[in-house]
Amino acid sequence: MLAERVRKFRKEKGWSQQKLAEKTGLSFNAITKIEQGRAEYPRLKTLIKLADVFGMSIDKLVGRKL
């Protein structure tokens, strides 16, 4: 699930939710919703921002395996 993966990757970096929000340019509220699983269908733009700051592909971010 995206919520668990974002939380895991954020914690691996040692970042707070606020720090992740600052690095992505997303709001703190958006990060909170994503991590709580309340953002069911985040925009592609949001996924790109998250993947970029974590230094990974969107596929890896969402747990997609080919």
Give the helix/strand layout.
Layout: H1 2-13, H2 17-24, H3 28-36, H4 44-54, H5 58-62
Helix pairs in contact: 1-3, 2-3
Structure description:
68% of the residues lie in helices and 0% in strands. By secondary structure, the chain is an all-alpha fold. The chain has one domain (2-60): lambda repressor-like DNA-binding domains (434 Repressor (Amino-terminal Domain)). It starts with a helix and ends with a helix.
* Helix percentage range: 55-70%
Structural class based on helices, strands and sheet pairing: mainly alpha
| CATH architecture identity | Orthogonal Bundle
Q: Outline the biggest β-sheet.
A: none
What is the CATH superfamily? Answer: lambda repressor-like DNA-binding domains
Mean pLDDT: 96
Shape call = globular
Share of β-strand residues:
under 5%
Question: Could you tell me the number of beta strands?
Answer: 0
Q: What distance separates the N and C termini?
A: 17 Å
Total discrete domains: 1
Q: Give the C-level CATH assignment.
A: Mainly Alpha
Which residue ranges are poorly predicted, with pLDDT under 50 across at least 5 consecutive positions?
none
> Count the helices. How many?
5
List keywords for this structure.
single chain; 66 residues; mainly alpha; 434 Repressor (Amino-terminal Domain); globular
